[in-house]
């Protein structure tokens, strides 16, 4: 495995084999194994459900709510601006819009209750973060291997999400893999 890591493999033998496209067929009918169909990813965004202009207005409102919430938590205007610009704030707003059937009014009402999602530092314990950083140093961005060896209770997609949110946090600078730089693959 180590000899092929980072190597670009081209050709028909290295391509995924996709099942035949069958529109309108429920996921549970696509696989003969019902357990397999439950492990499929859930659709979280349907772009055609919202006009671009409505989406932009909704995201501006969601960020404004996050900024206000950030300032109300005893912070300053800079804290509010940071809360509004965080990627997880935008992801949370888009998830709430999806869960609200792409109705911006309904989604904004739901966001009033929680305009700023729980921070990434609250979702993972300090020990888990340390293991994750150790995994980055040891295995680079081989999230499957990090999961297998260091964080078996986490799903690989959780590790990928954590990586992309974590690398933008101030904590990444102090706990980041500076001694053993992350190898890009």
Automatic annotation (TrEMBL):
InterPro entries: ELM2_dom, Homeodomain-like_sf, SANT/Myb, SANT_dom. GO terms for molecular function: transcription corepressor activity. Residues 6-115 form the ELM2 domain. It holds the Pfam family ELM2. One of its GO terms (cellular component) is nucleus. It comes from the Eukaryota. Residues 1-41 are annotated as: Disordered. PROSITE patterns: ELM2 (PS51156), SANT (PS51293). Keywords: Nucleus, Transcription, Transcription regulation. Its main location: nucleus. Residues 119-171 form the SANT domain. The keyword Transcription applies. The keyword Glycoprotein does not apply. It is found in: Nucleus. This is Arginine-glutamic acid dipeptide repeats protein. It comes from Aromia moschata. The lineage of its organism: Eukaryota, Metazoa, Ecdysozoa, Arthropoda, Hexapoda.
């Amino acid at each position: 495995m180590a000899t092929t890591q980072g190597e670009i493999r081209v050709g028909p033998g290295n391509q995924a084999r996709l099942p035949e496209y069958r529109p309108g067929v429920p996921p549970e009918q696509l696989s003969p194994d019902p357990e397999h169909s439950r492990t499929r990813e859930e659709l979280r965004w349907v772009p055609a459900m919202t006009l671009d202009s409505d989406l932009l207005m909704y995201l501006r409102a969601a960020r404004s709510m996050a900024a206000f919430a950030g300032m109300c938590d005893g912070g300053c205007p800079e804290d509010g601006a940071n809360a509004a610009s965080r990627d997880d704030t935008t992801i949370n707003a888009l998830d709430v819009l999806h869960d609200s059937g792409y109705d911006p009014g309904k989604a904004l009402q739901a966001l009033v209750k929680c305009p700023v999602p729980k921070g990434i530092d609250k979702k993972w314990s300090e020990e888990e973060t340390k293991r994750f950083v150790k995994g980055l140093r040891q295995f680079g961005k081989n999230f499957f291997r990090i999961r297998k060896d260091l964080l078996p209770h986490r799903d690989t997609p959780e590790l990928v999400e954590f990586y992309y949110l974590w690398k933008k946090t101030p904590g990444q600078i102090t706990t980041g893999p500076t001694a053993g730089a992350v190898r890009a693959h």
